[in-house]
Amino acid sequence: MLVAAIASILVIRKNRSRDAEVFSEVRAYRTEVSADTEILDDLVPGDPFAYPMDDELRNLISEAYDVVNAARQEQGLKPLVWSSTLEYGARVRANEIAVVFDKNHVRPNGAMWFTVEPSIVLGENIYKGYGDASKAMESWLSSSTDSENFFSSDFTTVAISVYENNKGEHYWAALFGGKK
C-alpha cells in the first residue's frame, strides 16, 4: 500500500515537471525590420527540417493557430495569416529554446531573437509547457507579456512551431511579421 502511494506521488511529480510552464520575461517586439542583419541559423546542432515533423505536432500547431485567430476575432482583430517564411524561423527557435530557454529571447550563441529571420520578424513569443494546444494557448494568451504580441494590430502574419524532446517536454515558438 505504501509503495503504491509513493509510486503515485512520483508519477504526479513527474507529470507536473513535464508540464511545468516557463514564459519569457520581456516582450520580444520591434518596430522595423532590417535586411542587413546577419542570419544566424546554425546555432543548434542538426537541421530542424532534416526530419519531417510528425502528425501529432503538426496537429498541435494547427490547433494553436486556430485558437490564436479565434481569440483575435473575439477582440475585434483581423486573423493572422500563416507565413511559411516565418515557419522556418519558428522551427529553428523552438529547437533552440529546447536547448537554452532564455527568458530574454537571446539565442544560444548570444544573438538577438530576430536574427533567425531579420528581414521579416517583428515579434516573438516563446513558451515551455503543455503538449496540449488548447491548454498551451490558454496559458500563453493569459501571459501579459505574450498576449501583447498575440493581440497586436501591428502584426499580420504568424508561424507557430512546437518541439518535443525525448523527455516529453514541449517547447513552443511563435514568430510575427507585419508591414513595418
Automatic annotation (TrEMBL):
Residues 66-173 form the SCP domain. InterPro entries: CAP_dom, CAP_sf. SUPFAM superfamilies: PR-1-like. PANTHER family: SCP DOMAIN-CONTAINING PROTEIN. This is SCP domain-containing protein. It comes from Butyrivibrio fibrisolvens.
